[in-house]
């Protein structure tokens, strides 16, 4: 009976660990109209290694919304990451989501970087940046 309980517990731990490995990572919701941002942590391991330190908004000369997000590494190790900036209209619907692929980002230990995204529609009022570990994404 104890062997069955131990096996069941080990299986549950392995399943939980596998679930963590494919976690989406960190998301930041950026509201351009209200000039606010909210950070959502979906991966504690990544949340302990990367911080969002600044968010700025402006417009391009053609009038499109633009966001600049500063992130910093809190570890000495090099991080292989991916990020994606998605744009949403006032109703919360994603605009042209299929065309927004993840981009590769190598963040050196204790380094910082600015990630910039420009809206692909004049209707875009909210953006979200997603950051995930490249290894967890199957790279």
General description of the model:
The protein has a 5-stranded antiparallel sheet with strand order 2-1-8-5-6. It has a 3-stranded antiparallel sheet with strand order 3-4-7, with no helix packed on it. It starts with a helix and ends in a 6-residue tail after the last strand. The protein has helices at 2-21, 44-47; strands at residues 26-31, 36-41, 50-59, 65-73, 79-88, 103-107, 112-118, 126-133. The longest helix has 20 residues, at 2-21. The chain contains 2 helices and 8 strands; from the N terminus they run H-E-E-H-E-E-E-E-E-E. The protein is globular and about 40 Å long. With 139 residues, the protein is of the alpha+beta class.
Question: Given this structure, which CATH class is correct?
Answer: Mainly Beta
CATH architecture: Sandwich
Flag low-confidence runs.
Answer: 1-23
Order of helices and strands: HEEHEEEEEE
The helix content, as a percent range, equals 10-25%
Distance between the termini: 41 Å
Q: What is the fold-level CATH name, i.e. the topology?
A: Immunoglobulin-like
Number of domains: 1
Number of helices: 2
Main sheet: strand order: 2-1-8-5-6
> β content, as a range?
35-45%
- How many DSSP E strands? 8
- Gross geometry: globular
Major sheet characteristics: 5 strands, antiparallel
SSE class:
alpha+beta
Quick recap of the structure?
With about 140 residues, this protein is α+β, with helices and mostly antiparallel strands. It has helices at about 1-20, 45; strands at about 25-30, 35-40, 50-60, 65-75, 80-90, 105, 110-120, 125-135.
């Amino acid at each position: 009976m104890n062997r069955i309980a131990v096996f069941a517990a080990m299986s549950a731990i392995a399943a939980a660990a596998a679930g963590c490995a494919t976690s989406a990572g960190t998301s930041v919701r950026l509201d351009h109209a209200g000039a606010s941002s909210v950070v959502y942590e979906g991966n504690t391991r990544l949340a302990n290694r990367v911080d969002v330190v600044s968010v700025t908004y402006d417009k391009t000369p053609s009038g499109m919304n633009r966001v600049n997000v500063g992130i910093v590494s809190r570890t000495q190790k090099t991080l292989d990451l991916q990020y994606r900036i998605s744009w949403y209209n006032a109703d919360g619907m994603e605009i042209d989501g299929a065309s927004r692929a993840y981009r590769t980002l190598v963040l050196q230990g204790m380094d910082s970087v600015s990630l910039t995204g420009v809206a692909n529609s004049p209707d875009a009022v909210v953006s979200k940046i997603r950051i995930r570990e490249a290894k967890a994404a199957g790279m």
